[in-house]
Write a structure and sequence with these properties.
It is a single chain. The protein has about 170 residues and is an alpha+beta fold. It contains 1 helix and 5 strands, in the order H-E-E-E-E-E. The chain has a 5-stranded mixed β-sheet with strand order 1-2-3-4-5.
Amino acid sequence: MSRNGRQRQRGFSLLELAVVAVVLSVLLGVFLERLTFYQEAAERARFEATLQIYKTALQIRLAELILERREGEARALEVENPTRWLSERPTDYGGSYPARPEPGTWYFEEGTRELVYVANSARRLAVEPRNGMKQLRFAVKVVYQDVIVSGRPIHSVAGIGLQPAVAYRWP
């Protein structure tokens, strides 16, 4: 009992509990937003690293063809699966494009001859969905240029790249 004869209350009032609940809810919301942001950033980084590996493998293959004086075979790289030129397949490579692709996986679609990445957590990825999923599609493109040799123009291989088949933006 207190001095004035009333019992002293212990614990928290309802108002104090409500304030704590609101503060915790706001903190949890901010935490979850940041978590999804970093998950998407990690996925985008992995996507970009894998895409760069594919580009490098294609450039090395083209360099091999040029060194062996087999530039005429470069056009075949546009229809082959670029995974063929990797020393190791990426762990997230799923093979031929299936009827139900798995998010977070790379595929090669035989019909369109495109390398496809099916995005997993891509809220900020701006691309037209296909089959209800956000997919990034790339086609191999051999670049040619005319070079003057002994006064005559020769159509020569200048480079190779993976071009987006569909425009996208992933900030």
